[in-house]
Design a protein that fits this description.
By secondary structure, this protein is an alpha+beta fold. The protein has 20 helices and 8 strands. Strand 3 and strand 4 form a beta hairpin. Helix 7 packs antiparallel against helix 8. The relative contact order is 0.11.
Amino acid sequence: MPRGKSIHEPRAESGRPEGVPRGQALLERCRSVRTLEIAFLLACLVWLYLVLFIPPFTPIHLAGDGPIYLNDAKRMLAGEVLYRDFFQFSTPGTDLVYYALFKLWGPRLWLPNAVLLMVGLAFVWLSVLISKRLMSPRLALLPGAALLTIGFGTHLEPTHHWFSGLAVVAAIAVLIDRQTVARIAAAGALCGVALCFTQFRGLMALLGFAVFVFWSWRRKKAGRPALLKSLALLFGAFLAAVVAVNAYFLWEAGVQQFLYCTVIFGTKYYSAQASYNTLRAFTEPLPAIPPWGNLLLANSWFFIFSFIPLIYILFFARYGREARRRPLVPWARLMLLGIVGLFLFLSIAPAPSLLRTYAGALPGLILLGWFLDCPDRLNRTLVGLLTLVIVLAAVKGIQRSQFAWRGILHTSQGSMAILDPQAYQEYRWLNEHTKPQEYVFDSARGQVYFYLDLRNPARVPFITNTDYTRPEQVADVLQGFKTHKVRYVLWEADVLGPAPSERNPGGDHLEPLRAYLRSRYHVVKAFGGYQLIWEKKE
């Protein structure tokens, strides 16, 4: 069945009132589209504000791994050097972003929320910028709205995943119109920036752009020197960005220590931390139904793990079938999205958690919008269903942040709203029993340091009962306890003991720490039956 007219091919001008000059009608249409885009961006800004802040300006506590990087930045602000004085397995981009912001404004509690607001808005803006070159103006808003509400809004973690994903999308936006010398170099540099946040994503994005440059060269039938020049620019700019960001840490920590933290450790031990760092991450996020309140989450899981990988397969199949007979379709722009998007998906395929998948999902979402940009009844129905899911996710996000239970905690760095009752009780107890800059060890999460202005006595942000925590790191934690006279230790009983774990006896190196804890500390508080606070005996 032939498809109806869509933005896939040039459209004849229609809808111009009689007597109105063509130029004036085009100008009015451009103004209308611009007004629609501005209104959409403002709506996204308001939505982001409502899911990140309690009016007028109380930040909502952000869980996940984000506080680890925030505390890294605080340690750097105090004069410590990343990799030399404390451990981190990712490249330094995230730590540097927060370090720079803390230098300007200090370690304010609202800063990570404000950063997430700007990152989310930047994703939406770049999505519209790219999408409107491929589909109708109204449908061009759909990919960004889907990413923002279904993905970004459900994973509000100020970590390297969103930063690196944004850098790659920015590189796509740079090359979407033309592949000039300057634009190819800029794309390579942005891939280098992405690697400085997330190693494998930045590297795979670079390979994706290299494949696209090769495809474009073959399509244009240019000479071999043109290909070599383009690849040299791409890889040269990439290396320049990587060296510029990492040179200081290579010098201060030493090449061996830097490579151990950022390359060797992740290669050997990262998958041992938990199942979400393996292929099992694919099935674990699927929520149970009933309860029926998880239906929206289940739809999100199905959407991201089914449609996003499938869309690349469908696109390449359609390109092979239609490229010759439909030359007016902007295949170069679509191929850029298809190739780079596929490489982004491959970068997280060994451990496809929802957060990692969403951070690189925008190219696939834009291709999905392109597929749906057709007046067929089926496509209109699918657009309506996707719009409904977006609206429901947006409403759910506001309900979760503005109308659910929350506790307001006042700390030395400001106030914050905590949406989890148990987490609120833990933070409040620690806030009342500690003083700013006191040494406390959060064994399993590493979240309390930034929010309560506490200090970590160890080089590692947290520990596990797997090979992810090495014996020398356990020894360092013990030494930190003794050197800094740590008074309180947060310990998750069901994961870390206090009895030796039977889950992973070969990779559990924590027994010396458990023995020290049992002999020198006693439990003073328990939350939920598994989160224990141990206090040093007098």
